[in-house]
């Protein structure tokens, strides 16, 4: 977590903020501001404590009512649902800020719904079989139709025996941080575990092609789980669904397509490829990126930040932006549904006031906001980060410039800076951010919360 007392002064830069506005805003007092991006990450400007929800000794829950809670109609479902069961050890605690595994898996169930309304996940604790009520009946019935069973932190031997006896018909079983006697399956084929804490070893599948595909799935799932964050836990399940049940569109084009990608690069970007390979930093960046999982944002960003160069920018601009050799088509997510604040100090929020909140009230200082807490080390949790928002010279123009420190792979702290064009959304308090980052165009959606 980034903290103010460890934050050194940033490189000096001019501050185009309006002096008249600063004076007016200082007199009106301060506010707590959050900017929520389209992927639900929060740029917190202060710390917020959340109450701990108490539960009974056995639990079962799902995320089927997520849209009802958000006040939105469920998305159309064109395919049969994918049914997932998660069984977690009672009282087990995750490495995600010591959050109980039960809560983590409930959150994962909600995030799966944001990907596809047809992904239905029920969460149980492992002592549910000891209780004589409707929960055990619901678990038995759910296991009859389940396509994936996810077992997390189950070490109690009685629970292990119950799972071994009652879950034999589930075609895909994955076990994490659980008893080594539990067996894993992919596509109905048994898979041996390596050691305690690991997931899978080499797969004993008869066909070489199928074996290689399963090994790639195993590697992706293991690497994602080992990063211990909520996005990667969701990714573990999406990989299994995509490989053994039905295609998951958001996983399309995560990797190069072989000859088609190579042909596109050679045909359109020969000089840029050669210049990159001849430049030590650009070459190191490509080697580093090739070793990262396509969904490991931290790994990918550290590679880029560590080896930034003009050659890398030109390579990215040609291969990814101008010619799209990887055929990427990322869209801004429309879930979860989050609404911006509607009032500020008793008045309806308008576009001007929303921009004023971004500009800030820090007077003669050279920045609008300081980031003191964050979620993602490659996005909003840098060792030190300053935010500058200001109105441009052109009518209606608005800009955002973050200046932040990044720890390189060599252990050095370096300053980086980006410049975003900010455009108003239809609703006051909503904005679209666009930036050319290492010659790769990015579009983000953000909104104001109070």
From TrEMBL:
<feature type="domain" description="VDE lipocalin">
    <location>
        <begin position="263"/>
        <end position="418"/>
    </location>
</feature>
<dbReference type="InterPro" id="IPR044682">
    <property type="entry name" value="VDE"/>
</dbReference>
<dbReference type="InterPro" id="IPR012674">
    <property type="entry name" value="Calycin"/>
</dbReference>
<dbReference type="InterPro" id="IPR010788">
    <property type="entry name" value="VDE_dom"/>
</dbReference>
<dbReference type="GO" id="GO:0010028">
    <property type="term" value="P:xanthophyll cycle"/>
</dbReference>
<dbReference type="Pfam" id="PF07137">
    <property type="entry name" value="VDE"/>
</dbReference>
<dbReference type="GO" id="GO:0046422">
    <property type="term" value="F:violaxanthin de-epoxidase activity"/>
</dbReference>
<keyword id="KW-0560">Oxidoreductase</keyword>
<protein>
    <submittedName>
        <fullName>Violaxanthin de-epoxidase</fullName>
        <ecNumber>1.23.5.1</ecNumber>
    </submittedName>
</protein>
């Amino acid at each position: 977590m980034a903290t103010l007392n460890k934050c050194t002064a940033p490189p000096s830069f001019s501050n185009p903020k309006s002096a008249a506005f600063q004076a007016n805003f200082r007199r009106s007092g301060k506010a707590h501001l959050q900017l929520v991006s389209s992927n639900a990450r929060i740029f917190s400007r202060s710390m917020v404590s959340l109450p701990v929800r108490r539960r009974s000794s056995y639990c079962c829950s799902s995320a089927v009512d997520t849209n009802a809670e958000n006040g939105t109609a469920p998305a159309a479902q064109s395919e049969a649902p994918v049914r997932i069961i998660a069984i977690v050890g009672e009282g087990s605690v995750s490495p995600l800020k010591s959050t109980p595994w039960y809560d983590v898996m409930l959150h994962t169930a909600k995030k799966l719904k944001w990907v596809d309304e047809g992904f239905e996940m029920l969460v149980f604790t492992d002592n549910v079989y000891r209780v004589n009520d409707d929960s055990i009946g619901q678990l038995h019935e759910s296991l009859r139709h389940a396509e994936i069973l996810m077992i997390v932190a189950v070490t109690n031997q009685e629970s292990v025996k119950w799972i071994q006896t009652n879950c034999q018909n589930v075609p895909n079983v994955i076990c994490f941080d659980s008893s080594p006697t539990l067996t894993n399956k992919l596509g109905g084929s048994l898979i041996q575990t390596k050691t305690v804490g690991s997931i899978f070893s080499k797969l004993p599948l008869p066909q070489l092609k199928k074996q290689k595909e399963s090994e790639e799935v195993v590697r992706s799932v293991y690497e994602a789980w080992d990063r211990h964050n909520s996005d990667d836990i969701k990714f573990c399940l999406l990989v299994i669904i995509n490989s053994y049940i039905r295609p998951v569109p958001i996983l399309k084009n995560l990797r190069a397509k072989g000859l088609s990608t190579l042909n596109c690069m050679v045909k359109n970007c020969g000089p840029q490829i050669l210049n990159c390979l001849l430049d030590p930093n650009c070459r190191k960046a490509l080697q580093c990126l090739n070793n990262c999982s396509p969904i490991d944002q931290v790994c990918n960003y550290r590679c880029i930040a560590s080896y930034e160069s003009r050659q890398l920018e030109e390579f990215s601009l040609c291969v990814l932006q101008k010619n799209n050799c990887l055929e990427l088509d990322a869209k801004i997510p429309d879930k979860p549904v989050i609404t911006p604040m509607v009032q500020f100090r008793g008045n309806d929020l308008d576009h001007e006031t929303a921009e004023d909140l971004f500009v800030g009230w820090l007077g003669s200082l050279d920045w609008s906001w300081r980031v003191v807490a964050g979620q993602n080390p490659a996005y909003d949790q840098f060792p030190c980060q300053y935010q500058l928002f200001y109105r441009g010279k052109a009518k209606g123009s608005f800009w955002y410039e973050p200046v932040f420190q990044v720890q390189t792979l060599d252990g050095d702290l370096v300053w980086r800076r980006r410049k975003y064009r900010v455009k108003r959304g239809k609703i006051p308090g909503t904005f679209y951010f666009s930036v050319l980052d290492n010659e790769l165009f990015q579009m983000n959606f953000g909104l104001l919360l109070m």
